[in-house]
Amino acid sequence: MRATVIHGAGDVRVEQVPDPSLREPTDALVRVSLTCICGSDLWPYKSMGADDAGQRIGHEFLGVVEEVGSQVTGLRAGDLVVSPFTFSDGSCDFCSESLQTSCVHGGLWGTNGTDGAQGEAVRVPYADGTLVKLPVEPDSELLPALLTLADIFPTGHHAAVSAGVRPGDTVTVVGDGAVGLSGVLAASRLGAERIIIMGRHTDRTDLAREYGATDVVPERGDEAVERVRELTGGQGTRSVLECVGTGESLSTALRLARDGGRVGYVGVPQDGGGVDARELFMRNVGLAGGVCPARSYIPELLPDVLSGELDPSRVFDHTTDLDGVPDGYRAMTDRESLKVLVRP
Amino acid sequence: MRATVIHGAGDVRVEQVPDPSLREPTDALVRVSLTCICGSDLWPYKSMGADDAGQRIGHEFLGVVEEVGSQVTGLRAGDLVVSPFTFSDGSCDFCSESLQTSCVHGGLWGTNGTDGAQGEAVRVPYADGTLVKLPVEPDSELLPALLTLADIFPTGHHAAVSAGVRPGDTVTVVGDGAVGLSGVLAASRLGAERIIIMGRHTDRTDLAREYGATDVVPERGDEAVERVRELTGGQGTRSVLECVGTGESLSTALRLARDGGRVGYVGVPQDGGGVDARELFMRNVGLAGGVCPARSYIPELLPDVLSGELDPSRVFDHTTDLDGVPDGYRAMTDRESLKVLVRP
């Protein structure tokens, strides 16, 4: 079959790879209907060292079950399913506490010999613990929206939950990428009254407004902090969603928080900087978040997507087939595209 | 009157200072019955630059109201009161949200021209918002225990609350100083089942056991992390109380937390280090805490002290008068004393 393989910075190829097959009785094989490129895929695309053998990549997919192992009880061939961006056994201490990203048998797609999602098919370990069955037809128009349940919508939701967003809240969202926009949608869904998005790309901030943002702050760093304080009676916002992942953005996020407030961070930290406890101490600002246990949030978010109440798929502004994936990486890196949807 | 003045590292003196008097109609004058030396007083004692004029010091006191301003409505001369270690107006946005440490008119004792607590009397701004009346006689044996409500007991409680301690929880307390021991007591009060204290002073860890600690870990750094993991099935504890304030102790605290767990920190951060979001991201470990809004916790903690159910005063192992304060600083710095009680 064909799948995307990254060989180093700027070097993404679509190649022939071995067809996946069941290895464990708890596996399932899924034929990928939809996948996409994630902002976090761009980090290796920008910085990975050259690697002749290459590494499978992609971690968001939705597709049809083709075959299940003998111990898979909740799924069968023909089921339409979405996978969170990590697999998990569904039964360990952490899975039972809804922290599937810490599953003792779990892992990320494309690492340690598992398949990446940007390909024609994926072998899914612990299929019962990992996959979520979708009650729609395989040709439903909702598929792109349902694909966002693999990562970005739950990740935006995780930022909002980690930041303690409550009805009536004031919220700042740092980052106008797909996750930041999902964070706006999630904060709005949780009842936030005022949502300030930091961003300077009008097409993105326009979508943010449609998702519920009430204010747009194009400034960064000190100027952004000053601007948000101006907008909030000098106080900052009780909740801040950090959806970028640099030390600078994290530092800004912490300063944007109102005294006693909380920053929920989901941007993959690219450096060790940004958090100085002295800055937070006198103001009792907290920090929570991390890699999103998407599996635990899908059941909560699914109904709002199925009903059409929310459409998190509007972040997809380009669609391509597998052959277009390398150019999709380039387009997202050059900010020509916000997020690329892929139909293998 | 006489009060303690710090003139630089290692240079604490008891001097004649002007008698305090009412300045604002919201002030009260309090004759100090009991005060004490705090671990955080030792930071300037170790590092402050030489200052001829000197600075009043001390922030924990309990005493009798001598005089109140015309706008003070909740107190009158003769009332026995305890003061939290910050003063606050009791009416601003933050005070009404129980975050009196962020009061827009508030401050710390001994700064910006306010009196320090280690003296014979204190002018208290915003007396109604700051002071808490104590329903005991001025000669009650409970006074030392009630004095702990000024700082260390609520601060230990704040660490436990910030770390999200719940009934049945596993907890690690980093630091065996007075605040760490108060944290043990507070975690135990909140129903923690297993409490591991990190410390290597047997007299302190013995008291920790009496306060509810179930395990003592004398190791530090990597070895401590390994030992706590051994004690907890490889997982670490869901809640960690950081009661020291160095980058090293904060870093250790974050590594001691179980995936999905939370560190409550109350040690005044002495350097900017200790928090690397990369360490926390994959494990969804959160950080909360800061300077304790003691004023908000006193009403909750007071009944357990009044009833004798809890005795947080056991951290006082030396008692002196004002003349003994300089030697008290030395004794605490040399770890001859855990915490010095002062009867001016």
A few lines on this structure:
2 copies of one chain form a homodimer. By secondary structure, chain A is α/β, with parallel strands linked by helices.
Q: In percent, how helical is the residue content of chain A?
A: 25-40%
The total number of structural domains of chain A is: 2
- CATH top-level class of the largest domain in chain A: Alpha Beta
In DSSP terms, counting alpha (H) and pi (I) runs of 4 or more, how many helices of chain A? Answer: 12
CATH architecture of the largest domain in chain A: Alpha-Beta Complex
- The succession of helices and strands of chain A, N to C, reads EEEHEEEEHEEHEHHEHEHEHEHEHEHEHE
Largest interface: A-B, 35 and 35 residues
Q: How much is the radius of gyration of chain A in Å?
A: 20 Å
Give the tally of β-strands of chain A. Answer: 18
Structural class of chain A: alpha/beta
Largest sheet of chain A: 7 strands, mixed
Assembly type: homodimer
The low-pLDDT segments of chain A are none
Distance between the termini of chain A: 11 Å
Organism (chains A, B): Halosaccharopolyspora lacisalsi
Keywords (chains A, B): Metal-binding, Zinc
Domain Alcohol dehydrogenase-like N-terminal (chains A, B): 25-135
InterPro entries (chains A, B): ADH-like_C, ADH-like_N, GroES-like_sf, NAD(P)-bd_dom_sf
